[in-house]
Design a protein that fits this description.
Blueprint (H helix, E strand, L loop, with lengths): L1 H6 L7 H31 L3 H12 L17 E3 L5 E4 L5 H7 L3 H12 L7 H4 L7 H8 L2 E4 L7 H9 L2 E2 L5 H4 L7 H14 L16 H7 L3 E2 L8 E2 L5 H6 L5 H14 L6 H5 L5 H7 L3 E2 L2
Parallel strand pairs: 2-3, 4-5, 6-7
Antiparallel strand pairs: 1-2
Length: about 300
């Protein structure tokens, strides 16, 4: 009895306190309900295998087997594997199929261009050569579909494609250069940048001057590159200013000043060889720069 009397004050509430307790109970029930419901809500928003297959069918017209059939294989580019994911054949899929799989329009277009120029996707590293695509984006796509690459086995068709691959170095863009074995987006960008500084490549061995290209890679590129020297951009030593001359990789600041000083002293340089005779260039240096200079 004494215990009841002692506890009684703790269970006596005013009208406003009872209302407060009721509100707290309602809030707690709502929070518990939200915590239970949210996982089901977000899971329902994720595309299911059926939805993904439906998207491929709507865009590509691909026909699939009846779900009741025992076979797990489908025709065309969006094909269901035994794992329940959609297989995407990278060397055959059209742009719409690529975008449905998760590639952006820009990346899908670059994939098509890469294939049109003779490129073949043999592995993940080949796909990462494509501009606009990185490992993070590719990993997200691989969670939705299975990317199917070409077989690494050398076939007659692959040999024909490789034998026909010949890149003209002074007109190639980055999408052309990444078709070459060992050349990815980074090195192709360096090649283009160095080509701009030079005014074009005069010979194959100049590629060794590009950071990242070693003797081993140069051997791989041998026979797959041609050089048209008619595309070289030459510097007129009679009209170029000092800064223009000094920007060339083969002309030092000292040599640029010496050319300007010598030109001013004689009025006009009539022959390039005179720069060698006046010791502005050594024989080795003149041999390198000769193709890039003109007196006209």
């Amino acid at each position: 009895m004494n215990i009841q009397k002692r506890l009684a004050p703790y269970f006596i509430f005013t009208q406003s306190e009872r209302r407060g307790i009721l509100v707290l109970i309602i809030i707690m029930v709502l929070l518990i309900g939200i915590k239970i419901y949210l996982p089901f809500y977000y899971n329902s928003k994720e595309p299911t295998k059926v939805e993904l297959l439906g998207n491929f069918e709507a865009l590509t017209g691909s026909k699939y087997n009846n779900p009741g059939e025992s076979s797990n294989s489908y025709d065309d580019y969006g094909v269901e594997s035994s794992s329940g994911y959609v297989n995407l054949k990278l060397n055959e899929a059209q742009k719409q199929e690529l975008t449905v799989a998760g590639f952006s329009n820009y990346v899908a277009g670059n994939i098509i261009k890469y294939r049109e120029k003779g490129g073949i996707f043999y592995c993940k590293n080949d796909l990462l050569k494509i501009y606009g695509l990185d490992t993070i984006k590719l990993n997200k796509i691989e969670k939705k579909v299975i990317l199917v690459y070409a077989s690494n086995n050398t076939t007659e068709d692959n040999l024909i494609t490789e034998s026909k691959l010949l890149i003209e170095l002074n007109t190639a863009d980055t999408s052309d250069l990444i078709l070459l074995e060992g050349i990815g987006p980074v090195i192709s960008g360096r090649i283009i940048k160095y080509r701009t500084l030079l005014g074009g490549f005069a010979e194959f061995n100049q590629l060794k001057e590009v950071y990242g290209i070693n003797e081993e890679l140069l051997i791989k590129l041998s026979g797959k590159i041609e050089i048209d020297t008619t595309f070289l951009k030459k510097i007129n030593v009679n009209s170029a200013d000092e800064s223009t001359l000094a920007k060339h990789p083969y002309i030092s600041n000292y040599q640029a000043k010496a050319i300007i000083k010598y030109r001013n002293s004689i009025g006009r340089i009539l022959q390039k060889n005179i720069l060698l005779e006046n010791n502005i260039f050594t024989p080795e240096e003149f041999l390198r720069i000769d193709s890039y200079l003109s007196v006209n």
